[in-house]
Design brief:
mainly alpha, Growth Hormone, Chain: A, 3 domains, 20 helices, MFS transporter, DHA2 family, multidrug resistance protein
């Protein structure tokens, strides 16, 4: 096989690996009810299915390039493929929530390595003149994986079971591993590359402590639990050491030049808010359709398609946007569409059909599809070209942390608000107001109805949080400098 053909094969499997690591993040979304039932998983544990994957990928994402330079790109990539496959296989064998979450953590750790290294491999196969145009295509593929995952998982679950969702990726990973083994040459740095492990470790400790506190606080009754105290102290200590190290050290894994760039920092904050909305909406909508409104998994998954079409379609069309249009206008329009879509979601009703979900999902998808490339352009237009690799890593890391913290926050408020609304509704069920049933089955049915009503009201409250998250960052558009023309 000649060199050109080898590059084509490597390019194809790199894109396939990119798609697989992104599609497996939301794959269980439309099948939460089945997964919870088979594993005896509580509602609060269901949120860990997403946060475990995201938080784990955020740990390995910043060090993926260093690992490749230190130990060899091919070796690290092969180990990541193997770890990802083992994580998927262990997920199918899980019989308890803890086993399943552990499998998702392993998948996330491998995903954080696969994503940037797949991009690096694909770029190596392209001629230099085609590389600048590759990043938008790669991002579109990642987005396509995220938005198509629930529909694929829903169809498989409806006709088979939830475990075959993960089996589907295993032969594809074996194929990628074989092609990489045969065609990819080893490549690593001649000297051990430097890396600020202390800064990275303290930042990670702070963020993971915060994540664990949010995920576990409700179940353990917050500060009545020693575990929550430990996780809170870990968060505070980690972030404190990170800030001190950042202010006193000369070398840091986040360059001071990046922090001084106004466009980059403001765009990164807005990108964090975008991540907060991107997956949190999906984490709320699918359970609402599946568990509260009783839609089957395939329908639940299918109703994510309009959002995906709007997101990926708008993202690709933004690549053809006229260069003379001010990027700040696109950012403002994107934020406005996302806010409007979340405002429409506040009008959801238990009596509605699928149409409002499809329409609002499409509008929000278009807003997010406009916002992502516009923020990227604003962020990188004023960055020194030598800092772009570092800036790109931090920029995408903030989106990942925005997603994982967003899912944790909406899950937290969802359960709190459901309990509060349930208590409020039950307080109105007195013999003086309504004729209460006396049989146990009838009382159970009434409690089931009240619980569903409380849960639906709580979901509406979380859509309001997502709307407010975008509203809070919207004034930052006014402080952006007009991006320079692309180099």
């Amino acid at each position: 096989m000649n060199a050109a053909a080898d590059k084509r094969w490597l390019y194809a499997v790199a894109l396939l690996a990119t798609y697989l690591q992104s599609v497996n993040l939301p794959l269980p979304n439309a099948a939460l009810r089945l997964i919870q039932g088979s594993l005896s998983m509580t509602d609060d544990q269901a949120g860990w299915i997403f946060t475990a994957y995201l938080a784990a990928s955020a740990i390995t994402l910043p060090i993926a390039q260093w690992l490749a330079a230190r130990f060899g790109l091919k070796r690290v990539y092969q180990l990541a493929l193997l770890a990802f496959a083992i994580g998927l296989w262990l997920g199918t064998l899980a019989s308890t929530p803890l086993e399943f979450i552990a499998a998702r953590i392993l998948q996330g750790l491998a995903s954080g390595v696969l994503a940037p290294l797949s991009m690096a491999i694909a770029l190596e196969t392209l001629p230099a003149e085609r590389r600048p145009a590759f990043a938008p295509k790669w991002t579109a593929l990642v987005l396509f994986g995220i938005v198509s995952g629930p529909s694929i998982g829903g169809v498989i679950c409806e006709y088979f079971d939830w475990r075959p969702m993960f089996y589907l990726s295993l032969p594809l990973l074996a194929y990628i591993f074989m092609v990489v083994t045969l065609l990819l040459g080893e490549k690593k740095a001649d000297q051990r590359p430097p890396y600020d492990f202390f800064g990275f470790a303290t930042f990670t400790l702070g963020m993971i402590g915060l994540q664990m506190c949010l995920d576990r606080g409700e179940r353990l009754d917050w500060f009545d639990s020693a575990e929550i105290w430990i996780e809170t102290l870990a968060c505070v200590l980690g972030l404190y050491l990170f800030v001190v190290h950042r202010m006193t050290s000369k070398a840091h894994f986040i360059s001071k030049a990046l922090l001084r760039d106004r466009n980059f920092m403001l765009s990164t904050v807005m990108f964090f808010a975008l991540g907060f909305v991107l997956l949190s909406t999906m984490a709320l909508t699918s359970p609402m359709l599946d568990e509260i409104l009783g839609y089957p998994p395939d329908t639940t998954g299918a109703l994510t398609i309009p959002r995906g079409v709007g997101l990926v379609g708008a993202f690709l069309l933004m690549g053809r946007a006229p260069a003379w249009v001010d990027t700040r206008a696109f950012i403002a329009v994107g934020i406005a569409l996302v806010v409007y879509a979340n405002w429409l979601m506040l009008g959801y009703s238990p009596l509605m059909d699928w149409t409002p979900v499809a329409v609002t999902g499409f509008i929000q998808g278009v807003g997010l599809g406009i916002l992502m490339p516009a923020l990227s352009k604003a962020a990188f237009s004023t960055i020194n070209p030598t800092l772009r690799p570092e800036a790109s890593g931090l920029f995408n890391l903030m989106r990942v942390y925005g997603s994982t913290l967003g899912v944790a926050v909406v899950q937290l408020f969802f359960f709190n608000n459901t309990q509060a609304m349930h208590s409020a509704l039950v307080s109105q069920l007195t013999p003086y107001r309504v004729a209460l049933p006396t049989s146990l089955p009838a009382l159970e049915g009434l409690n089931h109805l009240v619980t569903h009503q409380a849960a639906f009201v709580a979901v509406m409250g979380q859509f309001k949080i997502l709307m407010l998250a975008m509203l809070v960052v919207s004034p930052l558009v006014l402080f952006l400098r007009k991006p320079a023309a692309a180099n």
